[in-house]
Amino acid sequence: MRAMTPPRPRHLLRLAALVAAMAALALLVLDGARQAGLARLDADLQNRLTLTRHAVTAQIERYRYLPALIGQDARILSLLDRPGDDRSAANAYLKATRALSGVDQIYVLDPQGRALAASNAGEPGSFVGQDYAFRPYFRQALTRGAARYYAVGVTTGIPGYFLASRIGSAEAPLGVAVAKVDMGGLQATWASADQSVALADAAGVVFLAGQPDWLFRPLDPLDDATARQLDGEQRYAGQAVPTAAPLRAALTGLRLAEVPLQPDGWPILAAEPLAPVERQAQLLALLAGLSGLLVSALAVGWRQRRQLIRVRLNQNAELERRVAERTEALAHEIDQRRRAQDELREAHESLVHAAKLAVLGRMSTTIVHEVSQPLSALDSTLAAAELHLGAGREARAVASLAAARALLMRMQKMVRNLKSFGARQRADPPEAVDMARVLTAGAEVLAPRLRDLGQRLALTLPPGLPAVSGQAVRLEQVVINLILNAAEAAAGAGARAPVRVALEPAPGGLRLTILDRGAGIDPALQDRIQEPFFTTRVTGEGLGLGLSITRGILDQIGATLAFHPRPGGGTVTVVDLPLYHDAAHPAAAPRLDDRLAG
Question: Count of domains in the chain?
Fold first, then answer.
């Protein structure tokens, strides 16, 4: 009997190939995830370095102007010119400058490097009398005009950033002004946030760090010449910098990045641990391997699922067909809605056009109403001029003609303002208006009409009232309409008491009050008296536009209009007017002639 060949070796071969493929996939994912993690880490480090560089630069630049400013002060120049004189004025100036600027210390050196004055004069550890000629910033400031240097203070033992500026010219230097900036606050901020950032000098020695064990360590081993230079400058006095372990070699397991700090070129360093990146890469590689195995397992049942896939494809085709039908229906609906919107827009434009025609009609009627009173005054003035000419009183005739021309100009302005009132967008901007002058002008226009009505006008205009916001001609229209209504109401009731007009200060503005002894306003008509074309007069005596126009003018400038019954009969008309916001001086209030008021 022939033995059958078992299929086992072929299955083992397929299994081995599958395992090898999954291992290769895991290695590829591991490498890709590691590179992506390092790229993100480098980006984070660069962002941190940028922020750190800006913070360091801002801390230094905040005081960069101080040495040059100090070198221009007369007290400092006098001290350098006569070192043997009293130094109290210079020391007091440096103390005050230190207090105002917030810098750590300020001091002034003579051309030999000895401190003549300091902001800590008279205090323990004062710089006065100390010799700083060995400091590089002193020598560089004398030769170059300015210098920057970081070191541990030889007098105080406190590290600081030194900004120096030469006083005087390069050929005849008078001395050097120095400002010491305390960088400890910046370092404390880094330490409180546990940030692995540091700043090193040109020799590669870390002098600012968020990690305390990084301080005063060289990034790389120092050569003998650099070590001797640091020792000669006493840059880090009291610190064993040459024997400290190099920092760069000790930062194992960390990703290190650095950028230069301009203009010194000092390196700013930032570091982040690599362990989180490695752990994430390994986790992603493991997930990739497991995912590959899962995909392989799913592939085994692929043939059994082909029929199900075919059914789903058919279902998808049916769904796409329905979606296409619905899309077509939606497109039709959108087209119908667009047509409806076009029709609505056309209807709206028609309404706007109709409203414009209505406004034009209202304006023409308004002009007739508002010009009628000045025309009456113009007729009287021209008649007076004719009488004066006939009587040979040429001077009075000329005055009457001038008054007539003024009335014509006022009517022209009135017409222009009525047009702008009809088209609100063209109204003139508010201006400072002297209401006393407006009331005086309105009374002049109304004087002939008041005499015809047998009425008198009593004005109360306190001096020194501030200006209100509005347009003078429009407010004159308001005054004329309201006073004329009050006078006609009083005349109709047979009242002999004068129409009283008062102007007085009110919260946020001025209050105009008009009191008459007319028949008053029927409470049933209170809400309608300000409607256009509403009037209680006999047909032909008025168009019912006066109060509507008045209300429109007052609304535009933010004023209010109200009517109240007066005890004993009559009406109290109250207008509250806002002050002109730029009115810095009170407006002059001219007095009204007794003959005009009567």
Answer: 4
pTM score of the predicted model? 0.42
Judge if 454 and 388 occupy the same domain. Answer: no
Which residue pairs, CB below 8 angstroms and at least 24 apart, start in 356-360? 359/422, 359/423, 360/422
Q: How far apart are CA 106 and CA 96, in angstroms?
A: 10
- What mean pLDDT is reported for the chain? 80
Highest mean pLDDT among 99-108, 212-221, 387-396, 534-543: 99-108
- Asked if the structure places residue 76 within a domain, the reply is yes
Name the region of 146 (left: φ>0; alpha: ψ -120 to 50; beta: rest). beta
Q: Which of 384, 132, 145 is nearest to 237 (CA)?
A: 132
| Residues 549-574 pLDDT 10s | 788 889 889 999 988 888 878 899 99
Q: Is the dihedral of CA 48, 53, 58, 60 positive or negative?
A: positive
55 and 188 share one domain:
yes
Q: Are residues 276 and 205 in the same domain?
A: yes
Under DSSP, is residue 274 helix (H, G, I), strand (E, B) or coil?
coil
- Summarize pLDDT for 77-117 with one digit per residue, the tens: 999 989 888 889 999 999 999 999 999 999 999 999 999 99
What is the dihedral sign for C-alpha 525, 526, 527, 532?
positive
- Domain range for 245 is 28-61+184-299
DSSP class of residue 260 equals E
Q: CA of 517: how far to CAs of 219, 397, 455, in Å?
A: 100, 37, 11
Residue 528 lies in a domain: yes
Residue 547, domain CATH: 3.30.565.10
Concatenating the DSSP letter of every residue in 437-456 gives HHHHHHHHHHHHHHHHHT--
Q: Are residues 403 and 452 in the same domain?
A: no
Residue 484, classed as helix, strand or coil, is: helix
Same domain, 43 and 123: no
d(C-alpha 198, C-alpha 187), whole Å: 9
Q: Where are the beta strands (DSSP E) in 229-365?
A: 254-261, 266-273
Name 551's Cβ contacts closer than 8 Å, sequence gap at least 6. Answer: 530, 561
Give the HSE-up count for residue 163: Cα atoms under 13 Å, Cβ half-sphere: 24
CA atoms in the 13 A half-sphere facing the CB of 21: 12
Evaluate whether residue 21 is within a structural domain. Answer: no
> What's the pLDDT at 75?
92
Q: Which residues contact 117 (CB under 8 A, 6 or more apart)?
A: 76, 79, 87, 90, 91, 94, 107, 108, 128
Q: List the CATH number of the domain containing 245.
A: 3.30.450.20
Query: Is there a domain that residue 1 lies in?
Result: no
Four-residue CA torsion sign, 8, 10, 12, 18: negative
Residues 408 and 306 in one domain: yes
Q: 232 and 188, same structural domain?
A: yes
Q: Beta-carbon neighbour count of residue 415 at 10 Å?
A: 16
Nearest-angstrom CA–CA distance, 319 and 327: 12
The DSSP-derived string for 171-219 is SSEEEEEEEEEP-HHHHHHHHHTT--EEEE-TTSBEEEESSGGGTT-BS
Residues 446 and 484 sit within 8 Å (Cβ to Cβ): yes
Phi, psi of 196 (to 5 degrees): -90, 70
